[in-house]
Structures are given as C-alpha cells and as structure tokens.
Amino acid sequence: MKRFCVNCGIEESATTPIIRGLCPKCYTEIRGLVTKPSSIELEYCKVCGGIKVHGKWVYVQNAEELRETIEDFFIELLKPSEDFILEDIEITFTPYEDSPATINLFGKLGGTKISHAITVNVSWKASLCPLCKKVVGGSYNAVVQLRYINTDSEIERFVNSIVKEFELWIKEVKPVKNGYDIMLLDASLAKRIAEAAKRKWQAVRVMESYGDTRRTSSGLRVSRFYISIRILNFKSGDYIVVNGIPYTVVSFDGSWLNLRDSSGGISRVHIDEISRNLSKYRVRKSI
Ligand SMILES: [Zn+2]
Ligand SMILES: [Zn+2]
Fold it and tell me: Where is the Nmd3 N-terminal domain (predicted)?
C-alpha cells in the first residue's frame, strides 16, 4: 500500500519519501531540518579582524577565510534532526555588520538529497583579541636583530616574506645599519624566523639572549628575548681583517671563502671558522 503525506496528501514515490508521515517539503516546514538559535552574537577584533569562535580566537587573512570560519562555526552550532544528515552548508552574510545570514543546508532526508535555506540573525560585537591588546598596550617581548653583510634581493625577499607571514605579531620593523630590528609579540616566532634564515642560508650565526628586565604592573619580572641573526653573505670584494691582517674576499660559495692578502697570497677559510670567531674579525663590505 502506498503511503501519503499526512499534511499535503502527496503520494510516496522514489523522489518523495515519506518520513514520519510527512513528505520532505512538509517535514522541512513542520519539523525542521535543524534546530538553530534565532540569533547569535559573534565577537571580533576591531584591529585585526580575528573572530572568536567557540571560545577560541581565529585569525583570518581574507574574506574567504572569514567565510570558512563562520561556516565551520555554524556547522558545529546547527543540530540536525534525527532524520536529516547535514552534509554541507553555504552561508551568505555581511561581515562585521549586524544582519541576517542566509544558510543553505545540503544533506539527505529519508535517503533523498535535499537543500533548504534558513536564516539566522548575526550580531557582531567589537572587541580586542589578546594579541592586539598587547600591541595596543605597547608591549612586545621579542626582538629579532637581523643583520647581513651585503644587502641583496634575497635579503629583501626574506624580510618581506617574514613581514607578510607574521604581520599580526609584528609590532615594528626598524631598519638599522646593515639590517633590521623586528619587534615581535612572541618569542617562539623569533625562533621560527631564525630557523627560516638557517634554512635559506648556510652561513648564519644565531645568538640568543635576554634583556630589558622589568617589572609589570602586577609585579611580575619579565625579560625581553633577543635573537641575533647574522647572515654571512659574503661577496667578492668584501674586506675582512683576520688577526690584524686585511684580506679581500675573492669568492664565496656558501661554505668556503677564498681570501687574498695584500701581497696577492690566497688562503681558503671555511665559513664556520669565520662564524665561530666572528667577534675577532672585522668585516667590511665592498663599496
Ligand atoms: Zn507533504
Ligand atoms: Zn586582533
């Protein structure tokens, strides 16, 4: 015997299953595919645009990432009815502006594919994320002292990529003689930058130290983490003074330096030797 929808009377068919006495259309109208709040509030950072979802701050780089984050948020929030399998959602909303969001639900009801749109009012609450709070408060707790012998496009690319990747955590990038001081909110990022430099150049000397010890308003003693990254990118023509004797760099292949003294004698020195005893050497780049 064929079954019918008790609400609209439509007969059961391959495309119209009857679920709990209702066709998909009436099921959706009467029982609903999901339980949802009529409105939600999203907290966002007015400085960086990060948003707080399920108690955690998520940092988004662009509108697409924001949409994905909001979709993930709703997927967790919406509770599908026991007959509905929620497979995906697609959301249309106005970022950072109180407005209704349209959520397209995609899934299966009684074994049949179904899509249905619902709306939820979204209100946005402006606040400050912990990182931006620190920036606004003016405190940074790590400094990368990036130094090099010769400035070249590789150095520029490296600095640009760091600034791009860690933008949210960088308080300031200050150009100094033969390098940059990069003020960071987080010491672990300073170490990551040093690792990145070591991967890029073979001849890098890294030294870590602490300084600027001070007391916070809560009485805590804090120090700033300093990491000095010295990129030994010698080029032919650079001058280097070893034990008081000046040499000219003839060539450098990333590992070995060929040096010429004033009488034309050539000596070969490994970069590790220079790196280990850097304080004993005086280095001047070619002009
Ligand atoms: Zn019906
Ligand atoms: Zn922020």
Answer: 5-231
Q: Is residue 273 part of a domain?
A: yes
CATH no. for residue 264? Answer: 2.30.30
The per-residue pLDDT for range 152-207, each reduced to its tens digit, is 899 999 999 999 888 777 888 999 988 999 998 878 888 999 999 999 988 899 99
What separation in Å is there between the alpha carbon of 122 and the centre of ligand 2?
20
Tell me the C-alpha distance between 181 and 174, whole Å. Answer: 5
State the ligand closest to the CA atom of 185. Answer: 2
205 and 258 fall within a common domain = no
Looking at the fold, whether 53 and 116 belong to one and the same domain comes out as yes
| ipTM computed for the complex | 0.85
Ligand positioned closest to the Cα atom of 44: 2
